[in-house]
């Protein structure tokens, strides 16, 4: 009798739990799952922009065309490079700043707050500030480099495809390293001081303490942050496109295919689907091999 009542109570709690999360599941399905499934559906069609003309079924032709497009593979390579550089750069910068900010010194609270400014400043404000810095003729950086005879004062750095990628990469590292810094700093403050004292008793210098104590304690934080930043940067569009349309990353390629010139939304949908599948594969591999979940 008692087991029956316990089972009934657990069943009621399970039903209550599903009722509580049902609104969230429905909202996520409408906002995320439906667009993703509809995108996969469109990838098999030549999408008509005229409501009176139906979409034409293409089968796998959109995917074959994308995989044979050298521009797609160039954009894919640029995206992989962009993601690798920005993730590694933000991790190294965030780790270094976090270690410095973990030490006690006068004014530490103010400096900690100032470090977060790039991350909390509205994106559009940061983009326009950087665009002004690199502005031809009047930009402070361009004027400085031209005064050293390292560059022509009329050089348009941001809108030059050879330089846009570098500028966008530095901007991404500068804007997003505070997130990495904050996550690492929170973990650094939870590391017991007894571990460092034990290492000192064994004669460890600062480097050995970092390698044997700090880094192992930060492993899962760094790995998790690297995963999140990798996902976000692989799909990064807004800040890249706002800063320079010539960076050549895959999201910009998909956007131009879907909306610029003669739109090919079915082709763009197939490229987005390929990007999604690649990311799922990379995330699964990373979680198993690095995070070991």
Describe this structure in words.
With 293 residues, the protein is mainly α. It has one domain: Orthogonal Bundle (MetI-like fold), CATH 1.10.3720. It has helices at residues 2-42, 61-67, 70-101, 108-115, 117-120, 123-133, 140-147, 161-188, 193-201, 206-234, 238-243, 250-259, 265-291, and strands at 45-46, 56-57. It has a two-stranded antiparallel sheet. It is globular and about 75 Å long.
CATH hierarchy: architecture: Orthogonal Bundle
**What does the radius of gyration come to?**
25 Å
Give the strand content: under 5%
Largest β sheet strand count, sense and barrel closure: 2 strands, antiparallel
Keywords:
single chain; 293 residues; mainly alpha; MetI-like fold; 13 helices; 75% helix
How would you briefly describe this protein structure?
With 293 residues, the protein is mostly helical.
Secondary structure layout plus pairing:
Elements: H1 2-42, E1 45-46, E2 56-57, H2 61-67, H3 70-101, H4 108-115, H5 117-120, H6 123-133, H7 140-147, H8 161-188, H9 193-201, H10 206-234, H11 238-243, H12 250-259, H13 265-291
Antiparallel strand pairs: 1-2
